[in-house]
Specification:
The chain is an alpha+beta fold. Helices cover about 60% and strands about 10% of the residues. The protein contains seven helices and five strands, in the order αααααβαββαββ.
């Protein structure tokens, strides 16, 4: 029966080696229990070794899962706050610039810009309170992203216009499309201050909903690789099985183009 000791010892370590996991405590306990088996001839310590190995692996997996859940939750909170606040702050920044520029020569335009700032900041505060309240308590409702609110998004931007109609969309596609337009419009306001036109286009093809946001500003100021906005848009679109392309266009300007399959509702991504 002496061969059972080495066999049990190997059987205990095979899962650890196969999974490329080497918990020091498990190795120590397994080695110690094997030595005790040979020294005392009792099976008890040796039989406990595999159970300790399994418990150690389960604990390690649980710690990793908790770490992943915390990271995902932090990312979700960061994305929600970014989505709610970034556009309003960009609008406030643009309108403040307008007010400062025309305050002396055209005070009525400055007053209009200040009213726009007041409205944008009010919406931002209300949306932020709702979002933080939901994140804090898990109750209530955060602002629902939907292209039904597109007019509220576009109206304050005088140089923006909408071409085409998105039509009825599954809720996940509707939410993702709204966030893409919101972020692309925010980027256009921040990085293309010289743009005289921002065109938001919608089209339905065999591929699904095609939306684009194009500005005619300087391509040199395009936000390629900056911040988390483009990455967030791409994650939302790809989670629904779609594609997103962003970059300078010929002749100057910047375009964000997303294709969202209309069957994405089956994936249940909001």
């Amino acid at each position: 029966m002496a061969w059972l000791g080495p066999l049990w010892f190997v059987a205990t370590f095979v899962p650890l080696l196969w999974r490329k996991r080497f918990p020091v405590a498990v190795i120590a306990v397994t080695g110690g229990s094997t030595w005790l088996y040979y020294a005392t001839g009792h099976w008890g310590p040796l039989m406990a070794a595999p159970a300790l190995a399994v418990l150690s692996l389960r604990h390690q997996r649980a710690v990793e899962r908790r770490g992943q859940q915390v990271a995902q939750e932090r990312l979700r909170i960061a994305r929600e706050v970014h989505d709610v606040v970034a556009h309003s702050l960009a609008m406030i920044n643009v309108q403040a610039g307008v007010a400062a520029h025309v305050a002396d020569r055209r005070p009525e335009e400055a007053v209009k810009a200040l009213r726009a700032i007041k409205e944008a900041s009010g919406h931002a505060l209300a949306d932020l309170r709702a979002t933080l309240g939901m994140l804090r308590s898990g109750e209530g409702a955060a602002p629902v992203p939907s292209l039904r609110r597109l007019d509220d998004l576009v109206a304050p931007v005088a140089r923006a216009r909408v071409v085409g109609e998105p039509g009825e969309l599954p809720a996940p596609v509707d939410a993702a499309a709204y966030r893409v337009v919101q972020e692309a419009l925010t980027n256009a306001l921040r990085y293309a201050p010289d743009a005289t036109a921002i065109t938001i286009g919608f089209d339905r093809t065999d591929e699904g909903l095609v939306l684009s946001v194009v500005d005619n500003g300087s391509a040199a100021t395009a936000p390629v690789g900056s911040g988390s906005g483009l990455a967030g848009m791409r994650e939302r679109v790809e989670a629904l099985g779609g594609t997103l392309r962003a970059g300078p266009v010929a002749g100057g300007g910047f375009e964000v183009r997303a294709v969202l399959p209309l069957g994405a509702a089956r994936k249940g991504v909001a």
